[in-house]
Design a protein that fits this description.
The longest helix has 23 residues, at 34-56. The chain is an alpha+beta fold and 326 residues long. It is 22% helix and 31% strand. Strands 1-6-5-3-2 form a five-stranded mixed beta sheet. Helix 2 (18-29) packs antiparallel against helix 3 (34-56).
């Protein structure tokens, strides 16, 4: 690590190319508010500067595979990632010349191999790569806590494609990333609702609330999927379907609707099937329980990107927990 006075000893200043400026303006023009447009514009410039630096160092990258180059992810999230081929994603965060720390949104604290800070000086059309850190734990990262940018290449050396793939699989098995559903990336086991539920069930049993998100300039991109939940052989293999719908709202919030439905020829849930939402600490946030002649139970809430929660389906002594990140 270093202090702010020594930043310039290892910082690297590069020109902001015309192509980078054009791309940043194009991406910004797609946004719905001036604030979001400015965020996307600066993020794009930071990613472009780091990408140019890596090209100079003969480090292969894949901009198209980065969330920052995905129009849906740009609109829904505050992302500035760069995919380094065979290694993983680096987050390239912009800051102004007079800032001594850089904002790192919680939504990018996961699935990153490191963070690079880039000082943007548009008056001189330059971007200064200040340095690198492997991990972050707070939203404000002081410049004094970063290492020279050259250190990032030492970190690349022991990392293999196999290791990255194994880490990704492990993450997907333990925590479902709902934001990825909005780009039609689904974890194994999550099916379309029509495929999972018995078509003979009354239509009302699995109709979801459709929010008119087109009003106030917000585009509706609602996605829903379902998963078979087997509550155990001790209950004669009683199975239900856990259905989840995610709907983007304003201010980066996402609305989550959870439902539990009977499967097979059953019209109603057994009494006392319980649906529970647990917060990051494992405490009960919301819960619902089926009564006689309930053909489904449901809960709904809103959250911000990066928030963690779990969903528990319980009947008698049998319980299944699924973990999620927004």
């Amino acid at each position: 690590m270093t202090d702010n006075n020594n930043i310039q000893d290892f910082a690297l200043t590069l020109p902001i190319t015309q192509k980078a400026l054009q791309t940043a303006e194009q991406f910004a023009a797609e946004q719905l508010t001036p604030e979001k447009a400015e965020q996307v514009r600066l993020n794009t410039l930071a990613v472009s500067v780091v990408d140019n630096y890596f090209q100079m160092m003969d480090v292969p990258t894949n901009l198209e595979a980065s969330d920052s180059w995905n129009p849906v992810m740009r609109m829904l999230s505050n992302v500035a990632d760069l995919e380094v081929t065979g290694v993983g994603r680096l987050e390239c965060r912009p800051l102004q010349a007079d800032e001594s720390s850089c904002y790192i949104p919680p939504e990018v604290w996961q699935e990153r191999i490191g963070y690079i800070l880039v000082q943007i000086d548009e008056s001189s059309l330059e971007g200064t790569v200040l340095g690198f850190t492997e991990t972050v734990a707070t939203e404000e990262l002081p410049i004094s806590q970063i290492a020279p940018i050259e250190d990032v290449f030492d970190y690349f050396q022991p990392v293999t494609t196999t290791a990255i793939a194994a880490t990704t699989v492990a993450f997907q098995k333990t925590r479902v990333n709902l934001s990825q559903w909005l780009t039609e990336v689904f974890e194994a086991g999550w099916q379309t609702v029509d495929t999972l539920l018995n078509p003979a069930q009354p239509e009302l049993a699995y109709n979801f609330r459709k929010s008119d998100l087109a009003q106030d300039g917000i585009i509706e991109v609602a996605v829903k999927r379902g998963k078979l939940i087997d509550l155990g052989a001790q209950l004669a293999g009683y199975r239900v379907a856990l259905i989840i719908e995610i709907i983007p709202e304003s201010d980066q919030k996402k609305h989550i609707l959870l439902q539990v439905h009977p499967l097979g020829k059953e019209t109603y849930l057994l009494p006392q099937v319980q649906l529970t939402v647990l917060d990051e600490s494992g405490l009960v946030f919301l819960e619902a329980q089926s009564r006689s002649e309930d053909n489904y139970i449901q809960l709904q809430f809103s959250g911000l990107p990066g928030e963690l929660f779990s969903v528990q389906v319980t009947f008698g002594d049998a319980s299944i927990i699924e973990d999620f990140v927004l």
